Amino acid sequence: MLRNADKTPDDHARRPPLAGRLPIRLASWLVPRRTRAEWLARWNSGLYNWWILVERGEITRDTEPEVIRHCWGAFKDAFWQRFRREHLRRQLRGPGIVLASGALILLLAALLTSGFSATRALFLPLMVNDPKSLVTLRFTGSADQPSGVPPVLVPAWRAKSKYLADLAGYRHLRRANRAMVTTNFFSLMGTPAALGRTFEPGDTSVAVLSGPAWQQAFGADPGVIGRTISLDGRQYTVVGVLPEAFWAISPKIAIWTPLTLEPAPEPGTPFLIGAVGRVKPGTSEAALRAELLEIAKTVGFNLPRPPQVVRFDAVPGRMIGDYAAVVGFAVVIAATLVAVGRLSLRRHGWKYWAFFGAKTVWLLTVLPLLWIEIGAALRTQLPDTPWRAILAGPIFSTVFILGLACALWWNFADQNRRCPVCLQKLALPVTIGSWASTFEPATTELLCVEGHGSLAVPETESGEPDRWTALDASWRELFKK
Questions:
Q1: For residue 15, which of 56, 70, 52, 69 has the smallest C-alpha distance?
Q2: What value does the mean pLDDT of the chain take?
């Protein structure tokens, strides 16, 4: 048979047409690299032999289309070379499947979370001024009763309190995506509008959108300002959009409308509403409660006791430190598991350490990102009950810590069982020695399927480390398939 290496100068004049050579060359890129040269030589040899017969006149040129069709059949043969069982096994044991899976998970997570919106919000400026000075005023009853303050007291306390810099009222039903707030609510928070304006005194039939609602429901269209929307049978004009990172009362709230309390609460206002205030520096809780009780008496409202004053924490805060602490705790647990399991990494070339570093960076980046995004989704989508805080907080964080710790432990164990040359997972385990022998203890040997070496793993508590033995090139012929 005439191969490429055996061609003479005269053979170049008889080269097959490009329409035959090109598909074979393109199809060769589907063939695994380790067998590509042999496959290409075999197909080129057949093509040249066939074309020589055409040039000699032993086969008519009418058969040229048949030759071309035969060459395009190289794609089918190359496809089966790529996806035959032995090659798939090699691919699944190789480093490429790990890196490709990691990239795919990262891409899907980015698509499903709008580009990791909850994580990006952690690095945006806080849209609430001095959240530590915000407090909630409320009267509480039994667990199944509503809490809040009488709506008529909010304007009186705001006007007469010397310990409060400002006070706003609000209404929000659980599981609802709408909240009603007094017109000074956003100025109390210190939150400006990202687009348009917030509420002004005297506003009634206007609405302000949250940043996520503007992006998801209106496609981030700046022309939404001035548009009319319908809520509960009433028409509201959109006057502003809030910053993307801002939320208050509940992350679920998408639409804000004004709540009128002066000169009298608007019809339909319940007997208790929420109240959030900003205390002045140096104010004690006892002094504020006593003052509020006295102000209520002056307006003819005899309260049985002063309202509770608690910190208003239904606003975004800096959580980066908390997240970092949890990730650090998971890393400590993983290090403990690695030490207990006596896992160690051998000294090898840069490819070995680059692959290990890539896996470690991926685990320490993507898993925390998924934790943050899923936690934010749980807090947003689950009903506003005490169970939501428990499930999206301690329970989910515990699952994440254990998951990240186990993933980092797997990273060490996986790297420890890979060939330092080709990074394939070692296979063909064989146990030698005896569990009862001191001189020849039980040891499991794993081989590199490419013939680069073997790893001896002691099965007893002898304290000996794993031992890698490199094989010379003459052994690799035994491993070719």
A1: 52
A2: 82
- How many residues are listed for the chain in this entry? 481
Q: What would the pLDDT profile of 437-467 be if each residue is shown by its tens digit? A: 667 778 888 888 788 888 888 877 665 777 8
Q: Which helix (H) or strand (E) holds 435?
A: none
The mean pLDDT value for 258-270 works out to 90
Do 243 and 371 have their domain in common? no
Assess if residue 421 is contained within a domain: no
Q: Answer whether 0.90 is exceeded by the pTM.
A: no
Burial class (CB in 10 A: 0-12, 13-18, 19+), 86: exposed
Domain presence at residue 422? no
Helix (H) or strand (E) holding 209: strand 206-209
Whether the bond into 263 is cis, omega within 30 of 0 = yes
The residue assigned the tokens 């970092």 is: 324
Which residues on neighbouring strands pair with residue 311, listed in sequence order?
A: 135
In a shared domain, residues 407 and 336: yes
Q: How far is CA 124 from CA 11, 52, 187, 210, in A?
A: 69, 71, 20, 15
